[in-house]
Amino acid sequence: MASSTLVRTLEHHVKRILMVRPTHFELKYSINPWMDMKRGVNREKALKQWDQLKYTIENSGAKVEVMESTGAESLPDIVFAANAAIIKGNKAYLASFAHPERQGERYFYEQWFTNNGYECVGDQDIPSEGAGDALWGGDQLRTLFMGVGTRTDVRALRDVANKLDDGTNWKVIGCRLVDPRFYHIDTAFCPLNEDVAIYYPYAFDHITRHNMRNETDLIEVSQKEARNFACNAVVVGQNVIMHQGNEEIANKLVKLGFTVRFVDMSEFIKSGGSSKCCTLQI
Ligand code: ARG
User: Which GO terms describe its biological process (predicted)?
Assistant: First the structure.
């Protein structure tokens, strides 16, 4: 193989992750049960935690692209990049946020994707919240597990399948979310590779649990650690990056050959998000 081809092939395998700097992060409204307006966030601390998360992701071997939140002063949750879009190849299925408080984010994400060579698709009339509610897993990572609940409407399943269709063989399965604390699928489920995922079963209805088990092996996370955002992890190769204090699941993952890297995401958890929510694989 010519060396330039080799370099390109290797580059292609480096995971690329989009993060949005939390310049304007705050608790300005409450749209999920975690967002207690009485507890303000410490933005300086949040910026430090975000830097540490970025460093840990890069140190695990991924490339991080940063979107600045210039102009998005009134959109504190824009830091949760997972919600921007669902990515397939060079297509970005843009979110249509369920809550008016976040709807303004779409404009900034659309600009970023367009300027970075993505074709933006989507439907503004169907609520859907990007990769926060859509995770690739199962055999050859060809199953898109989509959360269906208060944020992503069931109509999005078909629309995503149609608009991201690239002629290859993949499918969408709908996963019904039933606990308001676990309002996006990425708060309760995390594929680690094409064989296995961690999940908090009681975030889903029992038919969903059955359907998920048909696609992938599942390791159960306890209620305590699920509420400590153990499932909201960033996976880079064998590295699993999650909020600290989740020793029980971490020990299980270490036994399976993963390296768990804890980060402190306390400021973001006040808004109902942790490490995975702050990232989008692109
Ligand atoms: N405060 C944000 C919201 O309620 C948190 C989003 C977390 N994102 C995620 N992918 N789970 O929308």
Answer: L-arginine deiminase pathway
